[in-house]
Amino acid sequence: MTKDSSDRGRADPAAWGEATRLVRGGLSRSPHGETSEALYLNSGFVYPDAETAAARFAGEAEGYVYARYGNPTVTMFEERLRLLEGAEACYGTASGMSAVFGALACQLRAGDHIVASRALFGSCYQIITAILPRFGITYTLVDSGDLDQWRKAFTRQTKCAFLESPSNPGLEIIDLEAVSHIAHEHGAMVVVDNVFATPVLQKPMTLGADIVVYSGTKHIDGQGRCLGGAILSTAKFKEEQLKPFLRHTGPSLSPFNAWVMLKGLETLKLRVLAQCAAAERIALALQDMAAVERVLYPTLPSHPQRDLAMRQMKAGGTLVTFFVKGGRARAFDALRQLRIIDISNNLGDAKSLITHPASTTHRNIGEEARATMGITEGMLRLSVGLEEVEDLLSDLSNALS
C-alpha cells in the first residue's frame, strides 16, 4: 500500500478509533488527490522495463502484476477491513462462500480431519459434509454448545475447527474462547464465520480464533448490490497457505465490488447498531403475538445462551428467528401477507428481508439435518433493516394476525 498522496503526517491508523478506521482505513490516493477511493478497472499492469517485471514476478519488488493476484482498489478494501478486525492480514474473495472454502481447502489435505458445529449455513454444511470428503478429508459434527462433544471430537488427524456464532438460522451462540482453547490443545486451527455478528459486534480473534471469514455481500455491502468475501488471518498464514491457493484457483474479488464494499464499510457501524436496536424491539414484540410459537434472539432472557452472547457480543445482531404456529402453510400465508418486508434469502440489507429456511437456504441439506439444527417448517428468519420500527411491527402484526 502506497502512502496517501495528501498525507500530512497523520497518526498511525492502528491508533484510530473504530469509526475513523471505517471511513479512512486503507485509503491510498492517486497523484490526482481524489476524495473518494479510486476505482481501478483494469485486469493487468504494465512495467517500465523487463527487469521490473521479472523482479515483481519473483517477489523481489513491490507492485501489481495481474488483477487475479491483486488490485489497488481491492487492496484498500482489504486494508480497511484488516484494521477494523485487528488482524495481521486480509484477503478479498469473490464471495463469502469462496472465502469459507478457500480458508479451509488451502490448509487441508487428504487424510486430515475437521471438526465443525452442527449448526451451519446450508452451503457451509455442503462444503464440510459433501465437498471436502471428495478429497479424502473426514469430518465430525458436534452440537454447538456442548463443550464435551467438542473435546471428544478432536483426533490426531484434526487440523481445523469450523463454526458460526451466531449460527444460521438458529442463532446459536458458541463459546469461541473455550472452543479455541480446545482446538489449540490439539494443534488445530480455528476458523470462524462471523457474518451474523459482523466485526462491529464481535471480533473472534480476540477470543482465540485463528481465521475469520466474511460474506461482504451481507452487512459490509449492506444494500444488496454485489457479491464479495474476505478472509482475515496472520500474515504467515496468508503468505504461505492462503495466497498460493487463491491466486491459482482464482476466486478474485472484482475491483468494482471491492469499491462498493469500501463505501459500505464507511457506514457499517451506524447501520449495524441501528439495525440491532430495531431487531431487539421486534424480537420482544413478536413474543407477544398469538401466532408466534417461539422467538430466538441472543439478548432475550429466553435465549439459552443469553449470558454467553452478552459476554461475546456488543449487541444481539440484526437477525431475528421465530416460529409460526401451523407449520409451513401458516408460515407461507404470513409471508404472503407482508407489504413492507420483502421475501429474500439475503440478509444484512438496509431493507428488511425474511425467508423460510427449510425451503430455501437449508433445503438441500435434507430433512434429517434440518431436524438436528432445529429448522422446522414454521421457522422464519427475519433480517431487520433500517425502516421505521413501527412500520415493520405493523407489517408483521398484520401478516401474523
Give the percentage of residues in beta strands. Answer: 5-15%
The number of domains is 2
Radius of gyration: 22 Å
CATH topology descriptor of the largest domain: Aspartate Aminotransferase, domain 2
Corresponding CATH superfamily of the largest domain? Type I PLP-dependent aspartate aminotransferase-like (Major domain)
Give the proportion of residues in helices: 25-40%
The major pleated sheet works out as:
7 strands, mixed
Corresponding CATH architecture of the largest domain:
3-Layer(aba) Sandwich
Secondary-structure element order, as H and E?
Answer: HHHEHEHEHEHEHEEHHHEHEHEEHEH
CATH class placement of the largest domain: Alpha Beta
Q: pLDDT below 50 for ≥5 consecutive residues: which ranges?
A: none
Distance between the termini: 56 Å
DSSP summary: helix tally: 15
Walk me through the structure:
- This protein has 401 residues and is of the alpha/beta class.
- The protein folds into two domains: 13-40 and 71-266, Aspartate Aminotransferase, domain 2 (3-Layer(aba) Sandwich); 268-400, Aspartate Aminotransferase, domain 1, CATH 3.90.1150.
- Helix content is 38%, strand content 14%.
- The chain has helices at residues 18-24, 50-57, 72-85, 96-105, 122-131, 147-153, 176-185, 198-201, 235-249, 255-266, 268-286, 306-312, 327-337, 367-373, 389-400; strands at 89-93, 113-117, 138-142, 158-164, 189-193, 211-215, 229-233, 292-296, 319-324, 342-343, 353-355, 379-383.
- The chain has a seven-stranded mixed β-sheet with strand order 1-7-6-5-4-2-3, sandwiched between helices.
- The protein is globular, with a radius of gyration of 22 Å.
- 48% of the residues are buried.
- The model has no long low-confidence stretch (mean pLDDT 95).
